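pasting for ref
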Amino acid sequence: MATSSGKRGRPQKGDGDKVSKMIVFKLNKNEHEKFEEYFKKSGFKTKKEFLLKSVENARVANDIVTDRISLLKDLAKYKSDFGHIGSNINQVAHIVNSIGYASTEAEIASRLAEMTGYLDMVEKKTNQILSLMGKFVNK
């Protein structure tokens, strides 16, 4: 079969597809036995396939650990934020309770607006946490 250039045979590989790099390393007897054991259990046809997949899996595992650490730091920050929001809500409640009632409609509206603001912050923080956890779970 002739190609567009008039030559016969298999199409040439692009520069990125050519196998031209080699990695060589030595193992001691125990390392070699362990490597062969893992390779046989892996079910891959070639050691190249096995090694490439192992490297890919190690990278993914590292990303998951990094994400988990990041998630825990973020959760600690959110815990602190929720504490501050709760404290603010308690201050508003304390003010209203100390006088027994809210004296004017304007004061009631002001306190409700303050409470609504705090509840909006709680909702926003909760959504941020759920978003972070979704990213972690979907890995």
